[in-house]
Design brief:
The complex is a heterodimer.
Chain A (H helix, E strand, L loop, with lengths): L1 H54 L1 H8 L2 H5 L5 H28 L4 H40 L5 H23 L4 H26 L1 H12 L1 H5 L10
Helix pairs in contact in A: 1-4, 4-5, 5-6, 6-7, 7-8
Chain B lengths: L7 H7 L7 E5 L5 H15 L16 E7 L12 E3 L8 E7 L12 H14 L3 E5 L8 H12 L5 E5 L8 H15 L1 E2 L8 E4 H6 L2 H8 L6 H7 L4 E5 L12 H18 L1 H4 L6 E2 L1 E4 L15 H13 L1 H7 L2 H11 L10 H17 L4 H23 L4 H17 L1 H9 L7
Parallel strand pairs in B: 1-2, 1-5, 2-4, 6-9, 7-10, 9-11
Antiparallel strand pairs in B: 3-4, 5-8, 6-8
Helix pairs in contact in B: 1-3, 3-7, 5-9, 5-16, 9-14, 9-15, 11-15, 14-15, 14-17
Classes of the chains: A mainly alpha, B alpha/beta.
Chain lengths: 235, 428
């Protein structure tokens, strides 16, 4: 009896050890692939930087549009492209390494599933980063615009926009990762619909008088403009 | 951003063999019919046969008028430009429509590409001088053209900049930022560095290419004074008795963003020049400054501006904190707690704020549109402070007050130099 238990344990132990031993070359291949692609990435990034600097890309883009600088004020387009090339190569190395890991494994069901899922994870990370950048940019834009329009609830408005974008981003990320897809869709629909309904009710009922006063003011603006009041001239 | 390339239409039109003695140009979109009528009247008045007394230096000259036009009007002359002899006056006026080269964010100012087209037309015509006038045509009058062109034609100046009859509450952006910053940087006491009207000599317009320069430095405006200063050309000022009804259509934030942004861009590209400039020189005033009507500053409601400043102080600390050093933030905090009637923004504080924002513009600490947007509440705070301060002053005293601010900018230049050269150095 005891011998059978020992045999069984030894058998499972040897199977696990042999599986780990089979995985080791794969892990080594993964590390080697990442290191090789790291070196290639570094080389390509350096070459890209030299070429883009020679082409004076930053100056050329500055002439046409400020769009890139508006979204990423700290990094010039050259630095951005260089970094994309570098991290793209590392990602490629990681994928190659994973493929090698899968190939070296006898039972490759888990790495294959992992490999298939990996693009979703990468996509979700990209979505999350982009969503954060957009949320921060829009929230700042709304805050500045609202302050300059002298709206007392500027902060509230800006936070509202920020969380709206973040909630939308999180919903998209979860959807992309296929985590609780139906629940997320439903929750987002309810949340978004609820916000819109609350705003509609707030404007329709709570701010009825405010809206009518505002319209009234617009209608009588032409008369007000003729009042002989001294004005400031900024320019 | 303005388009650098000139339209084929423009190039064809201005490469004509015809010549003229002077060119009057409008840089912003203009009502063509009104322009024709005004130009005709003006040229007739400038004719030697006219009974009007006009300075002989410009009377009887062959004149050309250039203006931006999306559609070329029917041509009468062999060279493609419209030729007009107003009422048989013996004076020839040629209309040169320039191909549309984009619309400036500030509608009353032309794009650098339009200025480029104007100067190219002037070079093609071989003019002695060129007067650029505002698109409302208020300065397209014989006496005012004479005021702009006489310093160039008679006194040998390369650039004649106007001094408008401004009241205490006129041109506040100019008085608070544009003029004193340009003065501190380039060392010339020019009252309106971004004027709508100016006269320019043939010599200077041969040398400048506004569109190419604007493209190189990422600026969307043309700064004639900077161009002249960089080339060490003679500049003078002349009192131009005209008021242009500009600025009412746009809010303070838009005007601030669209003018201060290009000023900071200019600052960045000319850093090697202005870092060597010390102090400032008085620029010759050819014609005395006309007296302005006294403005009753007490009737201006400053509460909304103060509210915007306080709202900005409550909400924009995160962004101001990225741009301004702690001591400035502390002083701003102290200002927000002041009662409205005692609210005063010290010159030194305002100057440091502008210099720090200029540096942040260069370093891209924030997105540039956000940066200039975050400056607006501070500017409105300065306006509120200034209005309260000058409300009891006479116009002359208010002018002296503006002069004191300009001197504060000059005094604060070492701070700018230090921050510009060593932006990472600890700045308490």
């Amino acid at each position: 009896m005891w011998n059978q238990v020992l045999q069984s344990l030894q058998g499972s132990m040897s199977r696990v050890v042999s599986r780990i031993a089979m995985l080791l070359p794969g892990i080594l291949a993964l590390v080697v692939a990442v290191l090789v692609f790291l070196a290639i990435g570094w080389l390509l990034a350096a070459m890209t930087r030299v070429i883009l600097t020679a082409l004076r890309l930053d100056e050329r883009l500055a002439r046409g549009t400020e769009a890139i600088a508006e979204w990423t004020p700290h990094y010039t387009p050259t630095v951005l492209i260089t970094r994309i090339v570098f991290w793209g190569m590392i990602l490629l190395g990681f994928l190659v390494g994973l493929e090698a890991l899968g190939a070296s494994s006898a039972d490759n069901a888990v790495p294959a599933r992992l490999l298939a899922y990996l693009p979703h994870v990468v996509g979700a990370i990209v979505l999350l980063v982009l969503g954060n950048i957009i949320a921060r940019f829009l929230s700042r834009s709304v805050l500045i615009g609202a302050v300059n329009m002298n709206l007392q609830y500027a902060r509230l408005l800006s936070q509202g926009v920020k969380w709206l974008v973040l909630v939308l981003t999180i919903a998209m990320v979860l959807d992309h990762l296929s985590i609780g897809a139906a629940i997320v869709d439903m929750a987002f629909g309810i949340l978004f619909g609820g916000i819109v309904l609350a705003l509609a009710l707030a404007v329709g009922l709570g701010s009825r008088e405010l809206v009518s006063r505002s319209l009234e003011r617009e209608a009588t603006r032409s008369n007000v403009e003729h009042m002989p009041e001294e004005k400031l001239r900024h320019f | 951003m303005a388009n650098v390339e000139l339209g084929e239409d423009t190039t064809t039109r201005i490469e004509s063999p015809a010549t003229a003695d002077l060119l009057v140009a409008i840089a912003a979109p203009v009502n063509v019919e009104q322009l024709r009528a005004t130009a005709s009247d003006t040229i007739r008045a400038m004719s030697p046969r006219s009974t009007n007394e006009v300075d002989p230096s410009i009377s009887g000259l062959r004149a050309a008028v250039a203006f931006p036009a999306d559609v070329a009007p029917p041509t009468h002359g062999s060279d493609g430009a419209v030729v007009l002899d107003p009422a048989g006056s013996g004076v020839e006026i040629r209309f040169i429509p320039l191909a549309e080269s984009g619309v400036s964010a500030i509608p009353w100012l032309g794009t650098p590409a339009t200025y480029e087209a104007i100067f190219q037309a002037a070079r093609g015509l071989g003019v002695k001088a060129c007067a650029v006038v505002a698109s409302d045509l208020a300065s397209f009058r014989p006496d005012l053209l004479q005021t702009l062109l006489a310093p160039v034609l008679e006194k040998g100046a390369d650039l004649a900049m106007p001094v408008y009859p401004a009241g205490k509450l006129d041109g506040l952006l100019n008085a608070s930022i544009l003029s004193p910053v340009a003065r501190a940087l380039y060392g010339k006491k020019i009252r309106y560095p971004l004027a709508l009207d100016f006269g320019i000599s043939a010599r200077l317009l041969q040398e400048i290419q506004p569109a190419r320069r604007a493209a190189a430095q990422g600026s969307s405006l043309f700064w004639p004074v900077t161009e002249a200063v960089l080339r060490n050309r003679t500049i003078c000022q002349t009192g131009l008795e005209v008021k242009h009804p500009v600025g009412d259509a746009l809010d303070a934030s838009t005007v601030l963003t669209q003018t201060v942004g290009p000023l900071f861009a200019e600052m960045e590209s000319n850093a090697s020049f202005w870092q060597r400039v010390r102090g400032s020189q008085t620029v010759e005033m050819v014609k005395a400054l006309p007296a302005a009507a006294t403005t009753n500053a007490a009737s201006v409601d400053i509460r909304p501006m103060l509210e915007t400043f306080q709202l900005g102080s409550r909400n924009l600390q995160e962004m101001w904190g990225l741009v301004l050093p702690p001591v400035t933030l502390l002083e701003l905090k102290r200002l927000t707690r002041m009662p409205a009637e005692q609210f005063r923004m010290p010159d030194e504080l305002w100057v440091r704020i502008i210099y720090d924002f200029a540096l942040a513009y260069r370093l891209r600490t924030l997105s540039r549109s956000h940066l200039l947007g975050a400056l607006t509440p501070l500017y409105l705070g300065w306006v509120a402070s200034h209005v309260m301060e000058v409300s009891k002053m006479r116009d002359k005293e208010a002018e002296q007050r503006v002069e004191r601010l300009a001197r504060a900018y000059e005094d604060g230049k070492p701070y700018l130099l230090s921050r510009w050269r060593w932006p990472d150095r600890f700045n308490p």
